[in-house]
Fold:
Amino acid sequence: MAAMTSSSVGTHATRTPSPSEQQMIDDILLLYQLKPTEKAYAHYSPSAVFHDPVSIAEGLDSIRSQFNGMPKVFAESTTQKCDLLAESDTSHLALNLTQRYVFKSPIPFKEKGTEKTVNSKVTLHMNGQGKVERHDEEWDWQGNKSEEDGFMGKMQQARKKIDAKVVEKGVPTDPGKV
Structure:
């Protein structure tokens, strides 16, 4: 019987990652845990795209800025669960990720603010060289809106691209400067 994992939308079959898959997952989870590293970014192609409900970051430098900027917003980010879904293959890794975020406090002299736990489906689409070409994060397993979703999808897609560009302008791409 296959192992199972629960998400915000139900249960899903899982499998054990290969050693190379586990290394990629562990490295990329460091980005979510506010610990960006060159090793994690080495898994991405230069033309990779990151898409979540907040932004669409196009190109590795923009992706770097998105993750390098997270420590400016969050005091903590802890991975509570990360399971590799059985649907994963050489073309993509699909993860059931539960991440707990603790915002920095807007109140002076108070380090931590509110917290939020998010269950996401994270899909890492690979190119022929085994690099991440597209990184999709779907909060609560709800698909990301895009131009294919009509007028409101087009509006959200435009906003997400602008959001990514604003972050890119203000956050260094070098994880050593975070």
Observations:
- The chain has a mean pLDDT of 89.
- The helical segments are 19-32, 38-41, 60-73, 150-170.
- Strands lie at 4-7, 10-13, 44-51, 56-58, 74-84, 92-104, 112-126, 132-139.
